[in-house]
Amino acid sequence: MNNFNKDIFTGLTFIAGLFGFISGEFIISSTLFASAAISSNIQLDNKSS
Q1: Assessment of whether the complete model's pTM goes beyond 0.85
Q2: Which residue, 20, 28, 44, 45, is the most exposed by fewest CB within 10 angstroms?
Q3: CA distance 1 to 38
Q4: Helices (DSSP H) in 1-49: which residue ranges?
């Protein structure tokens, strides 16, 4: 996943988490925030040895 796709995914999951939090779906919003945090911190190396 290149950086642009990764940024789009992280942004969309964060926005969806905010909407879920505002609407009262706390379990779903917590899951979305966690997936946004994990996807923003994961390092995928596509090096062929």
Answers
A1: no
A2: 45
A3: 14
A4: 3-23, 26-41
pLDDT higher than 70, residue 45: no
Taking only the tens place, the pLDDT of each residue in 7-28 is 888 889 999 999 999 999 899 8
Alpha-carbon torsion 33, 38, 40, 9, what sign? negative
Please, are residues 35 and 20 in contact by the beta-carbon 8 Å criterion?
Answer: no
Q: Specify the DSSP class assigned to residue 24.
A: T
Token pair listed for 3: 């950086």
Give dist(CA 10, CA 38) in Å, integer: 9
